[in-house]
Amino acid sequence: MAQEYPAGETRPRRRGRKLLIGLVVLLLVVAGLLVVADRVAVGVAERLIAERVSQEISKQGAQSAEPDVEVAGTPFLTQVLDGRYERISITLRDVQGSVEGDAVRLPVLDVDARNVRASLDTLRSGQGDVVADTVNGTGTISYESLAALLKRPGLTLGEQGGKLAVTAPVDILGQKFTVAGTADVTVAKNGAVALRFSNLDAAGLPNLPLARTILNKYAEGISIDVPLPDLPFQLAVREVRPLPDGLAVTADAKNVPINSAG
């Protein structure tokens, strides 16, 4: 026989079930609001950082497309309260700077800042330093812009077997030859990209000392140090590697303020 309850009284189990469902719904609503607030805060931070980066690039006499900024790590608001951010990624496209009147172009420069420290007071007031423990940058110098700096009509550059390869028409002893070879690519002490062409040859080149001397002079003429535009965030170039799309530049820095030019 089913148990009867006084009028107006519901079953305890059913009442508990309704309370549980209501609590779950409430928690989901609160969680949703927190997620929305968190994402909104991230968006605001990313826009502010993008503005600062654009200002820094402009102060250096360079230019680029509008930066793409991503603040990693969740939840973001917890990072704000802690004053430490896991990672901030910045992508700069079509970076150009004036170097002795010639344009050096980096189609893409990716900047990765790790363990970024910024107090809540700094974020509120805009005063104080936002410092990253480490900043790494990777970019690419297009072969077209690099060849333009060498000022040799018809010269083309590319990658061959992991080396920087060159092909160019050269007049030697009244004849036109197609010169080809590779270069050693290193980072000079001043941060420039050092190109050293020492292995050039041309099919059908006369076996004459004068012909070889002219070819060696041509190699010396295109062996230059290519100064790069100042990189943001005090990035110093550490390595340059020829890749199919261009010269890949790797740079880094430590304990870097990222909220001001320099």
TrEMBL record:
Claim: Transmembrane helix is one of the keywords in the record: yes
Transmembrane segments: 19-37
Superkingdom of origin organism: Bacteria
Keywords from the named record: Membrane, Transmembrane, Transmembrane helix
Keyword Membrane appears in the UniProt entry: yes
Protein name, UniProt field: DUF2993 domain-containing protein
Organism: Micromonospora lupini str. Lupac 08
